[in-house]
Design a protein that fits this description.
Helices cover about 40% and strands about 20% of the residues. It has about 375 residues and is an alpha/beta fold. It folds into 2 domains: about 25-150 and about 305-330, Rossmann fold (3-Layer(aba) Sandwich); about 150-305 and about 345-360, Rossmann fold, CATH 3.40.50. α2 (about 60-70) packs parallel to α10, α3 runs parallel beside α4 (about 115-125) and α7 (about 235-250) packs across α8 (about 260-275).
């Protein structure tokens, strides 16, 4: 993960947690499996599969790049695979089957949906240590452990910031989610977290779209809200544009747009611009392109996550377990290992901790 000289309390805590985690992973000692070959340093070479949702989203490209760069440091034989696109469960299932057949010691995976759970179970039953990255599976016990952003908190930061920016004005909201035909934890946690940050009651916290469509939000100074739409953009720029067009057709007065990620946000902005409209846009990812969109004003605020850290810590963990080290532990009070989040915005909001786009650009990922 890139380094920074930021000195905010949140950043210091994030660094402290990361260093503590790395130390814990390095010092453990129990056993699970071996490996077949030995590297130059005397450590057994460990086979690991890194399976992402796709190989085009900048987030997963950065994760794959970081994994490849760190593989040699850990004497890891890394195989990178992915689905063809978001939603390609079968592509991930095939990659899991291939990892089992190769005799890998572990798998790092950003699970597509509950559709890959059975394949993950098969891998664990075969003795592989499976770590989810970025997307906690449902249920979390599907994998050995998850290294991820606290996506609920990421969404809440966006919602708290948006409520403060509205300053009591009515909120006419478009929610641009990931899917409408699959249940993915990252999808509902960001969406529902955003609503909670706005101070809007959610019905089932694991389900998008079942909250009251009108009512009062209590974040910031509070005010009236209308939820115009929940549309799926599948995490892509073109999907974000078409989803936003559908929402604007329902209500052209949308003034607040939540997006699952930054490519979706860019697409939504294009649709707004084409319609001659403006709105506050919030998102999650914190890639370098997304941070640039914050600086240019396309995105008002984005919750930054750290995919290189996820891949690095995950690879270190599997390599150490295969060589007799301890299993990693979840963060206190959570059912996953929290790799940190920071809100990036150039419009500070009272009571919402954030960093500027200049600060975010020093620790962003991707090009």
């Amino acid at each position: 993960m890139p380094h920074s000289t930021l000195q905010t309390p949140t950043f210091r805590r994030t660094v402290a947690v990361t260093l503590a985690a790395a130390t814990a992973l390095a010092l453990g000692a129990c056993n699970r499996g071996g490996a077949d070959t030995t590297g130059g340093g005397g450590e057994a070479t460990v086979g690991i599969a890194l399976i992402t949702k796709d190989s085009s989203n900048p987030f997963f490209v950065a994760m794959q790049k970081g994994g490849r760069a760190d593989a040699a440091k850990n004497n890891v034989k890394l195989t990178v695979a992915s689905g063809k696109k978001e939603g390609d469960d079968q592509g991930q299932i095939d990659a899991i089957e291939q990892s089992i057949a190769r005799g890998d010691k572990g798998i790092l995976i950003t699970p597509m949906s509950t559709g890959v759970n059975a394949a993950i179970k098969k891998a664990r039953d075969a003795g592989l240590f499976v770590i989810a990255l970025d997307t906690p599976p449902d249920p979390p016990s599907t994998v050995d452990i998850t290294f991820a952003t606290n996506n609920r908190n990421a969404g809440k930061l966006d919602g708290q910031w948006a409520a403060a920016q509205l300053d009591g004005k009515p909120a006419v909201i478009a929610l641009l989610d990931l899917f409408d035909d699959k249940i993915v934890s990252v999808d509902y946690n960001r969406d529902q977290g955003f609503l909670e940050g706005m101070g809007i009651d959610v019905a089932d916290g694991k389900k998008n779209g079942d909250e009251a469509k009108t009512g009062k939000y209590t974040g910031g100074k509070g005010g009236d809200y209308t939820i115009v739409c929940n549309e799926a953009g599948e995490g892509a720029e073109d999907g974000g544009r078409s989803a936003m067009e559908k929402c604007l057709a329902k209500n052209p007065n949308i003034n607040l747009v939540y997006t699952i990620n930054e490519p979706t946000a860019v697409g939504a902005n294009a649709a707004l611009k084409a319609a001659g409209k403006t709105a506050l846009i919030v998102s999650v990812d914190g890639g370098c392109a997304g941070v640039s969109s914050v600086k240019s004003g396309v995105i008002g605020a984005t919750a930054q996550q750290y995919p290189l850290k996820m891949a690095t810590l995950g690879m270190e963990a599997i390599a150490k377990i295969a060589r007799g080290g301890e299993k990693p532990q979840v963060s206190p009070g959570l059912d996953f290992f929290d790799t940190g989040v920071a809100l990036v915005t150039d419009k500070k909001a009272d009571g919402v901790e954030s960093i500027t786009s200049d600060e975010g650009s020093k620790i962003c990922w991707g090009n």
